[in-house]
Amino acid sequence: MTDLVVVLCTVPDEEVGASLARTIVDERLAACVNLVPGLRSIYSWKGEIQDDREVLLIAKTRGSLFGVLRERIVSLHPYDVPEIVALSAADCHGPYLDWVHEVTG
Known about the structure:
Blueprint: E1 4-11, H1 14-26, E2 32-45, E3 48-62, H2 66-76, E4 85-88, H3 94-103
Antiparallel strand pairs: 1-3, 1-4, 2-3
């Protein structure tokens, strides 16, 4: 097991995503954030089916930082209920994990 988590978060557009990503990397809460445009999300919200274009953020960080990262994303995010999902990495390339630990926290 590693202390690496991959955090998924959707945002309404690339501008919001880039701003959020820069902030959490600058604050050393994530080592890297990938922005994946072209996402289409279909979901239920307040009793209605929604169909929206979004951007997916994929952040890599230490598991021990997830709570602080989650709260920071919530404070910056324009959605009432942002999607913030952490996936634990069972294994990863050792030098990459070392780099994540070096640039976060």
